[in-house]
Amino acid sequence: MPATPAWPPKSAPRLFIEDVIAGGRSFAIEGPQAHYLARVMRVGEGDTVILCDNATGEWATTVSQVDKRRVTLKAIERLREREDVPDFWLCAALLKKDRFDLVLEKATELGVGKIRPVITRRCVADKLNADRASSLVTEAAEQCARTALPELDAPVKLDAMLRDWPQERHLFFADEDGGEPAADAFCYAEGPAALLVGPEGGFDDEERAAIRAHPASVAISLGPRILRGETAAIAGMAVWMAEAGDWIGEE
Ligand code: SAM
Hints:
Blueprint: E1 14-16, E2 26-30, H1 31-40, E3 48-52, E4 58-66, E5 70-80, E6 88-93, H2 97-109, E7 114-119, H3 130-143, E8 151-152, E9 156-157, H4 158-163, E10 170-174, E11 180-181, H5 182-188, E12 193-197, H6 205-213, E13 217-221, H7 229-243
Parallel strand pairs: 1-3, 6-7, 6-12, 7-8, 7-9, 10-12, 10-13, 11-13
Antiparallel strand pairs: 2-5, 3-4, 4-5
The protein binds S-adenosylmethionine.
């Protein structure tokens, strides 16, 4: 007896939409998403498309109509609830564009709840194209089959961020000058957390002193070598997910 093919097919395209999805509702997909479905994925009537809305979860929909500029989808069934997002923020100093693009993509794949770009004195870049960054994050979430999008903050200056820091949230400061081994610090600290990583030129002495003086900050080491900012961010997020995030099995 041949096995029945899995449904929905793993190859089904996956998209985040702005609308809130409900069973039986139809959605008109237009613009670049319609082009992607009709021209790239070449969907036809009856095909399956996975839709997420960053609110109710992930739905299987079927293509009910494909026009020149619009693809109409009808929601059939909810496949998964929106994921429980680890209460973990990445606060990363802005880096050169392609390197910060990597940070945005990997932070999304690694499951962070929020990405907070930080402006420090030695940042090479001091602004971020919000629309472009949001598209990168959404595409990464679609690719890794997340059912939630990380929040993406507008860039914030380091001193303002420290001033307004929520006191209940651990601020793990990735410090190449030394600190607690990351895995130890992460696994023993309960509750909301964030990882702060510096720019290509690092933090200057005044910034470093201000970070270390903050009551919520804990300096952590990511080993004996000097990592690029993007490497430190990715490594730090991975260690946190493994020690305190959703890579650990259910208790
Ligand atoms: N001071 C560095 C140097 O001498 O080249 C410049 C900063 S490093 C390229 C970028 C950021 O990655 C640092 O600000 C720090 O947040 C983080 N980082 C790099 N290596 C690290 C390590 N071994 N432990 C903890 N954080 C590290």
